[in-house]
Records
---
Amino acid sequence: MKKQKEKTLKEIYSECWGFVKESKKQIYFAIGVFLFFAIIGFFVIPPKDMELVLIQKLKEIAEMFSGLGLMQTIWLIFTNNLFVCFLMLFLGVLFGIFPFLTLLSNGYIVGYVAQKAVSSDGVFILWKLIPHGIFELPAIFISAGLGFKLGTSLFNRREFLKNYKKAILSFFLIIFLLLFVAAVIEGVLVFVVG
C-alpha cells in the first residue's frame, strides 16, 4: 500500500480558503443579517429602557480598557474576538442559532453606535471606524458562515465530519490570523486615539 503524501502547510491553507469559498452562500447570509440589523440600529430609535441597557453595556466595554497598556489592550481585543468567533463557528452546529443572535446583537450595536457618532461628529466620523473592521468583520462573517454551514450539514454525518475538520483548520489558519491583525490595528488605535 502506497504511503499517502503529507500535505504542506501551503496546500492545507489553500484547502481552507477553498472551504471558505465553498461556504460563500452562508457567509453572504451572515453579512446580510449583520447589515440588516446594523441598518435597524442606525435608523430605528430604541425604547428608552433598551437604550439605557445599551449605554450601560458600552460603558462597561470602555471601562475594560481603562488603564491598560498597549499589549494588554491588544491581548484583550484579540482574546475577546477569538472567543466570540470560536463560539459562533462551533455553536453554529445548533442550527445556526448562536451565530444568528450574535450577528443580530453586534449588527444592531454597530448601527446604534454609528448613528450616535454621526449625529455628534458628522458622517465623516465613519471613516475613522473603517480600520477597526477591515480584518475583524471578515473574521466574524467567515466564523458565522462556517457555523451556519456546520449547522446545515448536521444531519449528513459524513458531510458534517468533513466540514467540521475543515472548519477547525480554517479557524486556526484564517480566522485566527485575521483576528490577530485586527487586534493589533484596533489596539493601537484604542491606545493612541483613546
---
Amino acid sequence: MSYFRPRNLLLVMALVLALVLLAVIALRYRPESQLQKMVQSLPKGIDVALQDIDYTHIKDGRASWRLVAQQVERQAQSGFLRVDGPQMTFYDDGGETKGSLQADEGVISDDYQKVGLHGEVVLKNPSGYALYTDHLDYDQATQMATTDAHVRLLGDGLNLEGTGLVFDVQKNLLRLHANVKGVFDSEKIK
C-alpha cells in the first residue's frame, strides 16, 4: 500500500499551503506595542498628515481648482490645515486656466474661508501679469486678498510696486497703500 496516492498528495499539499499562509500572516502581524511606537513618533498635535498631494476640486462636473503640494497637515488643536509648497491653478467655467498661485507655505482655516500664504508668494494670470509678495491673506467671505508687505506687479509694459495691498477679486480691483512707484509703457500693455 502506497502513501503517495493522489488523494494523500493533495492533502499534504493543502497542509503545506496552510503552513505557508500561517507563516506569512505571522510575519506580517505587528504587535500593538510596535504600532504605539509608530504613532508616538508622529509630530505632536497633528491628527492627519498627507504627502505629495495632487487634488482637483470638481464643481458641477468641472474642475474648479487644483492643488499640488509637498505636504498637508491638519493640526488637531486649532483645526487649521498647514500646506507646504502649495501650487494652485484656478479654472473658469470653460475649463481654461484663469490664474495660478504658489507659495512656500499656506495656512487654511477649518471652515476653508480664510487662507494665509507665506514665503515667496506669486500670483499669475493668463494675460502674463504676475504679483510677488512675502505674505498674502485671503478671505472667501469678502473675496478680498490683503497684505501689508512689499508688493511687485509685473507684466508687459508694467512694473508697479508699493507697500500694502487690497485686491477685490469680485471687482478685479487692486489698491496699493504706500510707497507706490511704477513704470507704464502704454504700447506694451495688453
